[in-house]
Amino acid sequence: MFNFKWLTIAAGWSGWSARGRFAGALLLMLSGAWPCLSGSAAEVGTPLTVAFDTRPRTVDPRYVSTDANSQYLEPLLFLPLFGFTEESIPQGVVAESFTYTDAKTLFVRVREGIRFASGRHLTADDVVATYNFVLSSQPAASLPPSPRRGTFARVATVSRVGERDVKFELSEPDASLISNLVIGILPKEALVRAPDDVFARQGFESGPFVLDRMSDSDWRLVRNEKFSGAPFGGAFPSVREIIFKILTDNNTRFAALLKGDVDLVQNSLDTDKVAELMKRSSGEFNVQLRTSDSTAFLAFNFKHKLFADVRVRRAIALAINREEILKFTLQGMGKISNSMFPEGHAFHFDNPKPLNHNLREAELLLDAAGLTDPDGAKNGKFRAEFSIKVPLNRERIAVAKGIAGQLRKVGLKVKVEVLEFNMFLKHLNEGNMQAWIAPWTGYKDGDHLHFVFHSSRVPPQGANRGAYANQKLDELLDKAKSESSLSIRQKLYKQAQEMIADDIPYVFLWHRVGHVVTRKSVTGFKIYPDGRYTSLSSTEKR
Amino acid sequence: MKLNITLMQQIRRDRLTLVSLFVVFFWGAVSFLPVLFPELAYVEIDLPKTRQPPMVDFSQPLGFFGYDTVGSSILLQIINGAGVSLVVGGATVLGALMVGVPLGAVAGYFGGRSDALVGRVMDVLLAFPPLVLPLAIAVFFGGGLWTIIFALCAGGWIGSAKIVRAQFRALKNADFVVAATALGATPARIIFRHLLPSVVSPLTVHSTFTMAGAILAEAGLSFLGLGLGDGHVSWGGLLSEARAYLIESPHMAIFPSLSMLSLVLSLNFLGEALRVVLDPRQSSPLGGG
Amino acid sequence: MLAAVAKILFRLFFVIFSVVTVIFFIQRMIPGTPADAILGPDAPLVQKQEWLRQNGFDRPISQQYVEYLQGIAQGDFGRRLVDGRPIAPQLSIRLQSTAKLAVSAFAVSLCLALILGVSAAVKAGTLLDKVFALFSLLMVSAPVFMTGTLLLWLFAVRWNVLPLTGHSGFRSLILPALCLGAALAAMTSRMVRASLLDVLREDYIRTAKAKGLPALRIYLSHALRNALLPVLTVLGLQLAGLLGGAVITEQVFTWPGLGTLMLEGVNQRDYNLVSACVVVLAFIHVVISAIIDLLQRLIDPRTVTE
Known about the structure:
The complex is a heterotrimer of chains A (542), B (289) and C (306). Chain A is α+β, with helices and mostly antiparallel strands and 542 residues long. Chain A is built from 16 helices and 19 strands. Chain B is 69% helix and 0% strand. Chain B has ten helices and no strands. Chain B has helices spanning 7-13, 15-36, 74-110, 112-127, 132-141, 145-171, 175-182, 187-223, 235-242, 251-278. In chain B, helix 5 packs antiparallel against helix 6 (145-171) and helix 6 (145-171) runs antiparallel to helix 8. The radius of gyration of chain B is 22 Å and the shape is elongated. Mean pLDDT of chain B is 87; it is low at 283-289. In chain C, helix 12 runs antiparallel to helix 13 (271-299). Chain C has 306 residues and is mainly α. Classes of the chains: A alpha+beta (542), B mainly alpha (289), C mainly alpha (306). Chains in contact: A-B, A-C, B-C. Chains B and C meet through helix 4, helix 5, helix 8, helix 9 and helix 10 of B and helix 1, helix 6, helix 7, helix 8 and helix 11 of C.
């Protein structure tokens, strides 16, 4: 099998001869010399174009919610208190440092010298005002409350202490708080304005770029000439202008890349298209691959009696041939995984007992569980049957079908039901399913396990949709939630994941390998597990 | 010029009609294969065969048309999809007739309030942008075979209702109807005995086109992601999947496209031919007028 | 005439009212609320309920309905639920772009239909007639998302002569207009042909022929004018249908029209957006049908259309 371990492949570079590099360097020198001849005209250059698969709903930090593209753009425009390292550990951006004086009180010190595009300094007052807006159920006249409010259910008050410190007081300990302090800070005078006003060029941005224009077809970001957040909030941008083109059709995005309409695509090409681009020897494109934090799994609904027996769950896990599915439906763009968090993540758990493909053992387990094959794998009659629900997504449908095909070989008849996304969620949250496939993406903290597996988190209280209940696990997850030391939390979550691995509420399949495809004129873009775009500020286009 | 051409004469005169008839019967026969041979009804998923191109290997007849993205035989799916397409088309036509004919008949024959009522309902339905109602219905019921048929019927009945209404209105004062009324015939008898036979021809022509349209519309809904999510194989579903691999794996598009084109085109040809046969005033290039 | 106009206006009002009502209730019956779509699948229930309350969706449905009707009556389409932006400006931009596509497709369809239809009627029964018939039936029988994708690949990528998406001015109009227009021309050309053949059998044409007038002139000045009358209705309905948004064509060609906006609204369960699109499109449809109705009365007072 393919082994993608932190693997970055630059498909285009192999074809790059020394002469080409020399010519490139020459070109670079020429372009550097050019402004002397004709003033600023040459600095404008052509904009960097990036393809987006959906229109970001909003970049107003107060109203960004779960929409991924909005979340990606937000830190380019508005700096947050914290960002994340590659290991998903919070890292100060606007925050210079933080201290917990006790489990319920957090002090965050605001960095000095960061300015908004208007020239004004970003102060602790702006941080307090922004967070108070988000926390409030009635933030300002005629403005709706922030959709991000729910994340801060345990935060009681936010206030300024001294010149540069912000105090977060909690009603109950919440170790995941820091990882949620990612809201872009707005100047306090912007908070009374309606979302529309924040977008117009008012100098509210503190990030490396400012928003110049947004339409249904594209969003234009230009360099924040007064950017002062380097290096914590990104480098001072070398490109003057970035255009995000909204191309909703998969075929169109690929075609736009080939045609040259688009310079950069991240994680929104079909895997076979990425594989095809990697095969090209023309050196037109650079392809970077890296294991992402998107976890694919097959999950069981414990209300369905077939899945009450752990032997059945184990048998299903053993009957699935993950390598085969990865190879044929994802062109190998997945890294087999046996736990929630990817390798390199702060809470990664290296499962010592992976459930690898083993048909024989799967059959024995099913026999032991009393599900015997009536006609000896002739496939006229079955040991049992169930259905897997999937949202409408070609890749997920293919994975579900692949699993269905494999489970049939051990005498399980599996039906794949495809549902429109909102409908899918409704069924899941009502517990109207037997098994389902949908990935987890974008979580940072170990507390995610509480959200997904704690017995109190059955919808609508959380995302324990399969109504999984394990008292020992509950205790462990509760304990971890009120613990603020990272190393102790890491240990607790490791134990929790050991339990999960034994009990198999989820069959973990793999972590998707993310991709970034750039035209060869573009350099400096770095791929991260969470698919962020922050390195656009250090990206160059020749 | 001949005033009345029978279907047989039309077929003899025009090869295209014959071919079209043959094609429609061919797909009809194909759609019975999975019923007669239940082993054909299960489409095997075999990942190692993913997107294998067509191969003429008589030991593996299922590979003639190649395999799709999960290694299922395209040939087998076309065979299974034929029935689905015909059921979608046929049931939509039947449903549309079952709603449209009575409403059109009542409106056309009795006129007055009932006519106004049916007319208003049609006005409202027609005012909805195309596809909105099917879309809403498909989202509401979650897109299965019968949902799609229901969705297509929702707007499909209007055409037949209009035909029936216009014809009834034109004929209700005709001599033979007036005479029958004078002789004491009940409205039901007049409608069934005298008026309905007169709409059979235009309705047949119309239904043929409706059927072709319904098969295409199902493909369109599949493209928008609201096709048959319940495990049925449909040609529309095959096509919308193939669209992503149009260049790399054209076989995925070619065979389902040809199947669908042949059936829809034949139905449209038949419609034209029927028009010539049943409505001699009209002439068609296919009949040579 | 005045009575007729009044009647038409009343019908117009009635239809719009019904459409507003139907779309209002259909949407509230569809599973999933805007809160699910906006706050995301994992948002706590309390927050969703709060969102619904804040946006007034927790009140009795009759009250919501009345308020919505009042809004529409004042021409206020409200705000998008997703980001709170007012709908009207977006709608007008999308409407313009839909109108652009519709009118061009209509023009393509009309030209093609006239050329194909007239030559088929003049050469009725010949090989040319058959070829045209085959061509037009082929155009209606192929799903537009396949032909469109193929054309796009060939012209925009392979030969690189046309733009890929609908955002590059006139040149990006060519492919979608052709695709949409050709499919429509198929139907219209059959009608033009049939109608023209009917007219050509009339006495006055024979008289004209007997008088020795040039054939072309007979066709163009006498026959065509009369033949186009019955086609007019169909053309009007076609235009109305086109303005109703060609969702699939817009999707394939990334054309920023009303159809895609509406689809976006359906996916996000944005009640206000979907209602606004549907109401505007229905309004256009109804007005166009009314105009056709009036035109027909003017041109040919004998027809009392229904």
